[in-house]
Amino acid sequence: MTKTRDAALPAGQARSQLLADIGRDHFLNGRSKVQIAGDYGLSRFQVANFIQEALDRGIVRISIHLPDAEADASLAAALGITRVVTVGTGTGTASREDLARATADAIVRTVAPGDTVGISWSRTLQATIRQLPAMPTCAFVQLSGAIATQGDAEGPRLLAALQARAVWPLWAPLVVNDAVALRSSPEIQSTLEHAHGLDVAVIAVGRWKEGLSTVWDRVPPASRSAASRAGAVAEISGRLLDAQGQAVVSPVENMIVAATLEQMAGARHTIAVSHGAERAAAVLAAVRGGLVDTLVCDLSLHEALADLIAKDSPAPAERDAGGHVP
């Protein structure tokens, strides 16, 4: 779409379309007024006025949907996990900031004094860090390298804003040409060693498919195809799973700077966040792999998971007393 960058603001149908586009960017895509102002060549105050006008004219309508606690409990039971937290509106979608707030709340509810918490990188988890209160008795481990997204230089500083007893950052990109050598460096090795014996792990689940994984575009096409042929369905910090929750061996494995799936699944409790109906198969794979105890999702993913389970899909793997696959 061509953004508006002139002094003459549109009128009529063109103005209505502009209001709809700005409303969609702000409320559905989670973009701030400052970001939208840069996109459209407007001031932040003009954007605020356009958003209010869109609301006043009914072009944008906000409905407040209180997720059904009974439906969340039912889905959790069907998945064989501890808890589902659904964040969403009548449209089924949730903004990144809303998901981040819910994930931060899940962390606060789960973590006990003295715990060691591992957090993977994703754009949603990066936003989650900013929502966490001071946790002076806990230690935090960064479970994966980061990917700097356009207009966002905070990725490599995932844990910088945390106030905690100890913080072990991972000063590396998530995807590199030779991760094996980088993982053996003393600094990286030291941080990843702290991922053993986690009390709580916090991860984001992506789908191994174009547009549904931040790692997908960072690896060569031949490596992507090899992983797909090997059955990759889910992606968690670059670690790949097949539909049954088993680790996928592919060339991608040697390009990832992150904790292992075993380290993540070994936590006492794992909190996973994901969104969008297209990621339902990936989340189910993560559940089968013992990588989900609490799931934070939007309404569209919740409904897609419920439909997927209802279609006679195989039951998730049995879990041990700690809630994980043996």
UniProtKB/TrEMBL annotation:
SUPFAM superfamilies: NagB/RpiA/CoA transferase-like. The keyword Transcription regulation applies. Residues 69-300 form the Sugar-binding domain. InterPro entries: NagB/RpiA_transferase-like, SorC_transcr_regulators, Sugar-bd_dom_put, WH-like_DNA-bd_sf. Gene3D superfamilies: 3.40.50.1360, Winged helix-like DNA-binding domain superfamily/Winged helix DNA-binding domain (1.10.10.10). Keywords: DNA-binding, Transcription, Transcription regulation. It comes from the Bacteria. Coiled coil: none annotated. Belongs to the SorC transcriptional regulatory family. This is Cro/Cl family transcriptional regulator.
